[in-house]
Design brief:
The protein has about 180 residues and is mostly helical. It has one domain. The chain is built from 8 helices and no strands. Helix 1 crosses helix 2 and helix 4 packs across helix 5.
Length: about 180
């Protein structure tokens, strides 16, 4: 098995789960949105493993407020990338591990889940309004997909929770691919 093969298997696994959940269960027939969400899952699983191998994150994603502050001093594509990163991180956690938000951020005023949803929606909307230029052709999200992520944030988070349920069901059946990527 090559180093690339587990990533391909994982990508197929998440794409299949996302399609089944969003199209069959939720009635969402939006291939670009579903593709974005399945790629988000692959990126975060790979990021988690990479961070563990390196012993530390290059930029701790948990520091949403620091990223938001950094975004205010950036322009153009750099600002768009930071807002997209904030949206992705908040969607990942509110979708897959909402129970962890309440345990890990008790000092946040209000409900951390609601705060993460609001921050994610806002960040995706800001990112969607910044011209992506030629990067869209290089695998980046279109502004339209980012805007739909903002408008449909809660539905996407719910869908990711359903993906997690299916993932866990497949894992207990022994059908899930290994999450170690090399």
């Amino acid at each position: 098995m090559t180093l690339h093969q587990p990533t391909v298997m994982l990508r197929r696994f998440f794409a299949g789960l996302a399609e089944a959940v969003f199209e069959s269960e939720l009635g969402v027939a939006d291939p670009p949105l579903i593709d974005y969400l399945s790629e988000l899952l692959v990126r975060f699983v790979r990021l988690d493993i990479t961070d563990r191998r390196q012993g530390q994150a290059a930029r701790p994603l948990q520091e949403i407020s620091l990223l938001a502050t950094e975004a205010t001093v950036r322009v153009g594509q750099a600002r768009r990338d930071i807002h997209r990163q904030i949206g992705d991180f908040t969607l990942f956690w509110t979708g897959l591990f909402p129970e962890a938000l309440r345990r890990s951020i008790p000092e946040v005023a209000g409900d951390p889940f609601v705060n993460f949803c609001e921050q994610g929606k806002r960040s995706y909307l800001i990112a969607s309004r910044i011209d992506a230029g030629e990067r869209v052709t290089n695998g980046d999200a279109t502004n339209e997909v980012l805007e739909r992520l903002s408008c449909q944030f809660e539905m996407c988070a719910y869908g990711l929770r359903e993906v997690r349920r299916e993932w866990e069901r497949h894992d207990s059946d022994g059908k899930a691919p290994p999450l170690l990527l090399g």
